[in-house]
Amino acid sequence: MALVNCPSCNKRISSMAKECNHCRASVSADNESLRVISHIKRSNQLMNQSFLALTLFIGGVVAWFWGGEPAEGTRSYLAIGAFSLGFVGYLITRVQIVLHKRKKV
């Protein structure tokens, strides 16, 4: 008996188990298809996070220059915060996407 990764949630389970203790996914002969589905779901999740971060970044830029002049006061802090958080979030998510694509399915 060995420990293997669940094809659905990727947590360690017994190789003799009929289903995962964590996510209750059936561990049967179609493990390869479950692994591919899990990989695709994670790819979609990362792409959604990337889109959200990019939207936050663009929203910060638009808030900064709304009305034709640079923002002042509270609006400037919100715009800089959204701009910075979106930029950093986008970079981190893109790195995660690259690392995820390098993984073998």
Which SSEs are present, and which pair or pack?
Elements: E1 3-5, E2 12-14, H1 31-65, H2 74-102
Antiparallel strand pairs: 1-2
What does this structure look like?
Helix 1 (31-65) packs antiparallel against helix 2 (74-102). The chain is rod-shaped and about 65 Å long. It is mostly helical. Strands 1-2 form a two-stranded antiparallel ribbon. The chain has 2 helices and 2 strands. The chain crosses the membrane at residues 46-66, 78-99.
In brief, what are we looking at here?
The protein is mainly α and 105 residues long.
Number of helices: 2
Q: What class would the helix/strand composition place it in? A: mainly alpha
The end-to-end span amounts to: 24 Å
Low-confidence stretches: none
Order of helices and strands: EEHH
Mean pLDDT: 86
Cα Rg: 21 Å
Percentage of β-strand residues: 5-15%
Order of neighbouring strands in the sheet with most strands: 1-2
What is the makeup of the main sheet?
Answer: 2 strands, antiparallel
Structure summary, number of beta strands: 2
Helix content: 55-70%
The geometry reads as: rod-shaped
Protein name: Zinc ribbon domain-containing protein
Transmembrane segments: 46-66, 78-99
Keywords: Membrane, Transmembrane, Transmembrane helix
Keywords:
105 residues; mainly alpha; rod-shaped
